[in-house]
Amino acid sequence: MMNVYKKLIIFTIAFVLNIGIGFSQTIPYEKPEWGAYTEGEEGFLLAHVVNWPEDGKLVIDRTIKPREARLLSEPDKKIKIKLIDGKLTVLLPENAPDAQVSVVRIQLIPTEDWANLKRYRKANAELRAPIKNEKRVVFIGNSITDNWTRDHGSFFEANPTYVNRGISGQTSAQMLLRFKPDVIELQPKVVVISAGTNDIAGNRGYISLERIAANIFSMAELAKANNIKVILASVLPASSYSWSPSIEPADKIVELNKLIKAYAKKNKIIYLDYYTPMVNEDKGLKMELGRDTVHPNGDGYDIMEPLVNAAIKKAL
After folding, report:
1. Quick one: DSSP state of residue 20?
2. What pTM did the predictor assign?
3. What is the per-residue DSSP string for 121-154?
4. Potential cystine with 58: which of 25, 90, 94, 238 (Cβ 3.0-4.6 Å)?
């Protein structure tokens, strides 16, 4: 611990004196007169105090959201933080614990945007309301939807009323949480829901196939309650996940698709079958249609596009 602390002090002195030892200043706060801020480990901010305040009141940036603070050299002792005369103030001991630079380790209040609502916030605000008789279609999904614009953008260019709201890595629960701002408030006539593979991969921990399906069905019910036609897409075939190698997804995908298809039939919702034309003999994605075992390539999207267009036409 002491060796790490000494190294940090050396790096801090170099940083503050602007002679550079690999630091890059990406901190979104103004450089204070008393020293400098640097990022600590995730969820922490380090305040490197060169000019120790005589009154013990270290004023830090008001936009910082601190949970607690401790001196790095005295990790067992909390330091009080108060708002004094509108200034966010760390109440330091009278004397600096270190001769040159002392470090205050500030734990930040978590600000995780779990569903990534910010991803499309600006785009949603800038998207005009549908004009009369416009047949807007929103695609909500994971990386397979997200990458569609990047890898085969001509599809969306050719269909300007189609709106892509996919986010890479997302699970059905995350999509459900952002369904209102990213789908309902955009006032589409149709929504294409593609979810489930990241749930099976365990991106947010274990979840049963029944709960995955329930999240997808909840999105469908929200759409129907807002007079939006629903298309439920099958999960694409996958034999493995490079980011989650312990999972064997092939049979789970088959079972989840059965649940989605049965629900669609019972509730008179369109079921979009991407799976059948894209699966190989091992229940995986055909090699010629994927850039890996999960994500379609251009040829894969060539298979998907007429299928989704036909489903949209039917829904409308």
Report:
1. -
2. 0.73
3. HHHHHHSPPPPTT---EEEEESHHHHHHHHHSTH
4. 90
Cα–Cα dist 233/281, whole Å: 21
Tens of pLDDT along the chain (316 residues) come to 445 554 455 454 444 444 333 334 457 888 999 999 998 887 899 999 999 999 999 999 998 989 899 998 888 889 999 999 999 999 999 888 887 899 999 998 877 789 999 999 999 999 999 999 999 999 999 999 999 999 999 999 999 999 999 999 999 999 999 999 999 999 999 999 999 999 999 999 999 999 999 999 999 999 999 999 999 999 999 999 999 999 999 999 999 999 999 999 999 999 999 999 999 999 999 999 999 999 999 999 999 999 999 999 999 9
What token pair was written down for 66? Answer: 């601190």
Q: Which two tokens stand for residue 53?
A: 């305040």
Torsion, Cα 214 150 139 265, to 10 degrees, reads -60
Contacts of 18 (CB under 8 A, 6+ apart): none
**223: which 2 tokens?**
């759409």
| Strand 66-71, strand 74-79: pairing | antiparallel
Enter the tokens of residue 49. 């105090």
**CB of 300 closer than 8 Å to CB of 147:** no
Sheet holding 81-84, edge to edge: 57-60, 87-91, 81-84
Asked if 198 and 169 count as a contact pair (C-beta separation under 8 A), the reply is yes
- Strand locations in the chain (E): 35-39, 44-49, 57-60, 66-71, 74-79, 81-84, 87-91, 102-108, 137-141, 162-166, 190-193, 229-233, 270-272
Rounded distance between C-alpha atoms, residue 298 and residue 252, angstroms: 26
Token couple for 132: 């009369």
Could you tell me which residues are beta bridge partners of residue 91?
A: 57
